[in-house]
Amino acid sequence: MSSTPHDPFYSSPFGPFYRRHTPYMVQPEYRIYEMNKRLQARTEDSDNLWWDAFATEFFEDDATLTLSFCLEDGPKRYTIGRTLIPRYFSTVFEGGVTDLYYILKHSKESYHNSSITVDCDQCAMVTQHGKPMFTKVCTEGRLILEFTFDDLMRIKTWHFTIRQYRELVPRSILAMHAQDPQVLDQLSKNITRMGLTNFTLNYLRLCVILEPMQELMSRHKTYNLSPRDCLKTCLFQKWQRMVAPPAEPTRQPTTKRRKRKNSTSSTSNSSAGNTANSTGSKKKTPAANLSLSSQGLGAIPNCSLNPGRDGDLCHSTAVTPSGQFKEKH
Questions:
Q1: In a domain, 146, yes or no
Q2: Considering the domain boundaries, does residue 265 fall inside one?
């Protein structure tokens, strides 16, 4: 069967620039294929340096890996950072797994300015177990990946939500132990929990404690300080951030509005004290008060925007002792 240009593994005779114009020249799913090949190249002698190189090749420096599933005691969600990702993959093989690969079916890709998101609702994580017995485990769920849209195209976020799993035992093994009830009873028991081994589950629980300690480990590695000094420094900086006053938000300059003066006030001709209180913020001249009080009249200023008969803006209304109003200009 000949390969076609639509095949992700197709190699064009005209060079890699003939098929795609993206920086990495391959589809994001091909990165998962490359990761599967790298996992198959693992040997029993693969140490921490090999796993660090594996994580550096496929994960960004600030990448996060999240697993969501439901156990007997309720739903679980674990998120680990970049420094803990290599150890996560190594614990899968320490639990008796000899082979690990991912299968993506009907995935959807969405391109953004600086990233590519792959959403696969039918993802299967297949693990081949050699101990305690030969079993193939298919863990199915939804996998959401976010790749950086650059030359390396590494994973920035990994979120795998497990829905169900199946443990498959070959018929040949069942036929071999058909006459042994104890072996059949052992074969009928699950060797994983939601497709994850006990080694991996224990490591995820441990990551809940290790993840907050990444700052201490990074400071110890960078400055070569003792664990006690690293803890003192981190606590002191955290205390400084707590006691530091929060940054004041920038205040917008308030526009001052001109207040309209209230020109209407009342005076009482019974006493001079009431006349002083009725003027409010305005102060009357002593001469005006004397002239009005000597005539037995109280003046009420009445300013209007409409000019009076002589063209003045302000005129006054006088109150006679008999209670009648007399307008004065």
A1: yes
A2: no
CATH of the domain at 60: 3.10.450.50
Tell me how many domains the chain contains: 1
Which residue from 270, 278, 207, 240 is spatially nearest to 65, judged by alpha carbons? 207
Phi, psi of 17 (to 5 degrees): -85, 0
pTM: 0.61
How far apart, in whole angstroms, are the C-alpha atoms of residue 87 and residue 55?
Answer: 9
H or E stretch at 169 = none
Give me 258's structure tokens: 């001109």
Domain extent at residue 60: 28-195
Over the Cα atoms of the chain, what is R_g? 42
CB burial of residue 201 (10 Å; 0-12, 13-18, 19+):
buried
Cα–Cα dist 306/147, whole Å: 75
Q: What is the mean pLDDT of residues 125-140?
A: 92
CB atoms within 10 A of CB 310: 7
Q: CA-CA distance, 129 to 97, in Å (whole number)?
A: 4
Among the listed residues 88, 83, 121, the one whose alpha carbon sits nearest the alpha carbon of residue 103: 121
| Predicted pLDDT at 5 | 47
Neighbours of 156 (CB within 10 A): 19
> Does residue 125 lie within any of the structural domains?
yes
For residue 228, being part of any structural domain is answered with no
pLDDT of residue 324: 53
Q: Are 55 and 86 in contact (CB under 8 A)?
A: yes
In angstroms, the CA 61 to CA 81 distance is 9
Give CA–CA dist 101/89, Å, rounded.
11
Spell 247-265 as b/e; 16+ CB within 10 A means b. Answer: eeeeeeeeeeeeeeeeeeb
pLDDT digits (tens, 9 = 90+) for 220-277: 778 888 888 888 888 888 888 888 876 655 666 566 566 565 554 444 444 444 544 4
Segment holding 161, helix H or strand E:
strand 155-168
